[in-house]
Amino acid sequence: MALSGLRILVTGAEGFIGKNLCVRLGEFPGVEVLKFTRGDDIPTLEFLIAKTDVIFHLAGENRPEDPNAYMVTNHGLTAALCGVVQNELALSGRKIPIVFASSSQSILNNPYGRSKRAGEQALESLANETDIPVTVFRLPGVFGKWCKPEYNSVVATFCHNVARGQPIHVSAPERCISLVYIDDVVDAFVEAVESAFQGYSISSVASEHTISLGNLADLIRGFAEDRSALRIENVGGGLERALYATYISYLPLDSFSYEIPQHADSRGTFVEVLKTASCGQFSFLTAGPGVTRGGHYHHSKVEKFVVIQGDAHFKFRHIVTDERFEVRTSGEKPQVVETIPGWAHDITNVGKEDLIVMVWANEVFDHERPDTIASKV
Known about the structure:
By secondary structure, the protein is α/β, with parallel strands linked by helices. Helix content is 30%, strand content 30%. The chain folds into two domains: 7-144 and 175-210, NAD(P)-binding Rossmann-like Domain (Rossmann fold), CATH 3.40.50; 263-374, Jelly Rolls (Sandwich), CATH 2.60.120.
């Protein structure tokens, strides 16, 4: 079933998962998102379901003051929803697919687990009696942007506190937890509907991660430390990518930007911007008209230069054969100029405005072993 053009009901639309799902659904052409939120009543649910094509049932109770509220909401509301959907089938003949956000705790014998299992059983009965498609996702801990800290997500609490310089407490660092990232959860929900699932099924999010609380705390603390060190770890994929995106989403407004040091002299400025764990560092330099920078060679270090503004003249000299080579480039036609090990090189601003050049080096600058040897070109 293609989502485009559908009217889709999301119960619990103002919750953590609900907010993320509603935003994603709104990105599909022609989708109308109908929202059932805390405080709405059963007549409202009936009104919404009467004009709904698909239901994402996310509403539930996570941390009530009264444990009896687990069963009232997690089973009671779900049973009521099943009744309304069954009535709609009798009235219009429409079999409205349902995606239900359950919990991995539904197999446990605790108040929350029993209530989620009771909700699953109500939906299973509905599917068996009516052939209405139902898929249940038993979710472990879900984390990501907009999750409430100090509530039911240790990731949200750690990210919120670390981003504000507040302490976090890890009483059992060796304890491992299972996590799924909110974007992966939403993807799985959408894919379930698009696959036109049939009958009653229990599904899971493919990208599930396991990590100890101690390692989780260390990773998130590391994200904060990386800023002052101008460093970034390997955050391009997997759990680290998801945790990094989550941590950044908890930054207070005054931390959206931060200063970095610059080194200035008569030639211009040199600014180290970002140092990576395994892929070198990014910097930029400036030079006034007529100024030459460089005049050195490297044994192993490789650099890539891109002129952002101005006109540059690169000169190269082989330190053994004395062979020479020149390149002219400008910000009007960007190109990469690469330094070659064993070739001395420099760069001269041959324009009338300040030269601005982005620089990547394949290794982080090491003051003890800089691999930068002065040599005239």
